[in-house]
Amino acid sequence: MENQFVVGQILKLSKSTVFNIIRRFKKTNSVENKQRSGRPRTFSEREERWIGRQVHINPRTSEVKLTLKCKSRFRKSVNPKSVRNVLRKHKYHGRVPRRKSYISKANRKARLAFAKMYVKQPTEFGENVICVDESKYNIFGSDGKQKVWRIPNTALHVKNLRHTVKYGGGNQLIWGFMASSGVGNLDFIDGTMNKYVYHDILK
């Protein structure tokens, strides 16, 4: 014990530190610290699977709301970044959802029933069918997101602006049809498309 005290004074270490170093050397034949496992994980595998299920059930849930759920369920102090890392680990990434026309369940059933009604019709049946549709075309650019490459302080330069038109007039509605015999003429629609406009076109 006296030798440990003397060594501690020489190396400016406490007697307990010297004792622990000697004990470690006797046990492992080395004075190096044992390799540690690193920072403990925030969530267990079971908790991570629960987080993954939440976004699978509701992909629109936010990181903040999911973090609050984790705090309430697991009684842990976590931040949104930890939750985001778990989601990325399970191959979930934040993306802008693609747009798709909304079709109700009743409408989907009606369309499927309509398709099944005519699926077994002979080829000649298609000669009496006319397919019609209308579509809107923008005159000035696109309705979607647009980007420009510019340097600082040039946001108001004409070539860096996105031109818009007030009170309509920035797009044109076009109606057309096709049949087995070929494609028909296009009609340019002014105003709202309704049954009266349809009747005028078909005349």
TrEMBL record:
Query: Domain Transposase Tc1-like, which positions?
Result: 49-119
> Where is it mostly found?
nucleus
Among SUPFAM superfamilies, the record links this protein to: Homeodomain-like (SSF46689)
Q: Which InterPro entries match?
A: Homeodomain-like_sf, RNaseH_sf, Transposase_5, Transposase_Tc1-like
Q: Where can this protein be found?
A: Nucleus
- Name one molecular function that GO assigns to this entry: DNA binding
Residues in coiled coil: none
* GO cellular component entries: nucleus
One example of a Gene Ontology biological process annotation: DNA integration
Which Pfam families does this entry report, sorted A to Z?
A: HTH_Tnp_Tc3_2
What is this protein's record name? Transposable element Tcb1 transposase
Q: What is the lineage of its organism?
A: Eukaryota, Metazoa, Ecdysozoa, Arthropoda, Chelicerata
Which gene is transcribed and translated to give this protein?
A: TCB1_329
